[in-house]
Inverse folding.
């Protein structure tokens, strides 16, 4: 879309006249002034949407609310920490001021002024009706939505590319029976997308891909020891654990079963990049590109503030950090 297409066809005076309010009231609505009544805000926004009016937000007001999960559930919360750290490095460099808001305190959004919001690891269904309440962009990180309402954007990692990257690396090193434990439960987060991508990658590599080799871990880490035991009984020569932070618990589980990494079995897992280089052996890690995710978020918000078109969906490639937990070469 050309940049000129983002310029509103109407003027603020016309919106005020149709809505039956003053221009000052329209301005306060679009600057998310906390003293505007919710029903009045909804009325003005409805009039603006019906007539295609979407003004540029003030470049002086660059307060961004970062919405984070309330309960710090390990290991999923570690991914939130990594994304949050990248955002706190990138966003201030672009002139944005950040405010952290736990998801269970979202009602406070009605009482503060902000130019955009970023939700980390939240389900899109939690933000149904966002455009009816707030005239500002929302970026949802690490999730995808079926259909995007106005000025709601999704930025996530490329699960198909990431799963193929890890499976391909193990196959190149001679692994021929790969077990997989996917963090989470079916129907939650990115678990189903990862499972579909893993099965596709295994089939493309002409490796076993039956259900007995692919498990879900559930919400925590309690099942890893049991599931790894089941996979070892099936004679797997490699383990891939996407999502969460499964590297350390996987190494611990192998020690309980008397297996050495990588001499007896190769391992690739999601793990905090700050930790994975200090395990014994150093862990080959599959990781979202957190810096790219933060940069893409800032790009979307800057484009929106300047009245330019921004992509509704951004899909970023995974990174594979190759270390010593994958054997140098295994005989097929």
């Amino acid at each position: 879309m050309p940049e000129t297409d983002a310029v509103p066809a109407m003027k603020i005076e016309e919106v005020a006249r149709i809505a039956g309010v003053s221009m000052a009231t329209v301005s306060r609505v679009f600057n998310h002034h906390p003293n505007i009544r919710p029903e009045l805000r909804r009325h003005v926004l409805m009039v603006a949407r019906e007539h295609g009016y979407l003004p540029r937000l003030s470049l002086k007001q660059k307060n961004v609310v970062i919405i984070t999960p309330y309960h710090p559930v390990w290991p999923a919360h570690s991914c939130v920490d990594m994304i949050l750290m990248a955002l706190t490095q990138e966003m201030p460099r672009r002139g944005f001021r950040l405010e952290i808001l736990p998801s269970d305190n979202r009602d406070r959004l009605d009482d503060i002024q902000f130019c955009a919001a970023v939700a980390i690891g939240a389900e899109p269904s939690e933000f149904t009706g966002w455009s009816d309440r707030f005239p500002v962009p929302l970026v949802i990180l690490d999730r995808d939505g079926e259909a995007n309402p106005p000025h709601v954007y999704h930025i996530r990692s490329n699960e198909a590319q990431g799963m193929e990257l890890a499976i391909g690396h193990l196959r190149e090193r001679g692994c021929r029976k790969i077990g997989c434990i996917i963090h989470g439960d079916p129907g939650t987060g990115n678990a189903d997308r990862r499972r579909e991508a893993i099965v596709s990658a295994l089939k493309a590599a002409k490796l076993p891909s039956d259900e007995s080799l692919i498990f879900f871990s559930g919400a925590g880490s309690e099942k890893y020891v049991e599931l790894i035991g089941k996979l070892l009984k099936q004679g797997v020569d490699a383990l891939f654990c996407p999502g969460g932070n499964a590297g350390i618990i996987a190494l611990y589980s192998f020690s309980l079963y008397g297996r050495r990494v990588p001499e007896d079995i190769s391992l690739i897992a999601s793990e905090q990049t700050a930790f994975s280089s200090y395990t014994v052996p150093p862990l080959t890690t599959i990781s979202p590109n957190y810096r790219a995710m933060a940069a893409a978020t800032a790009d979307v918000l800057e484009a929106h503030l300047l009245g330019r078109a921004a992509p509704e969906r951004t899909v970023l490639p995974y990174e594979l950090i190759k270390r010593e937990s994958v054997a140098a070469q295994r005989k097929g």
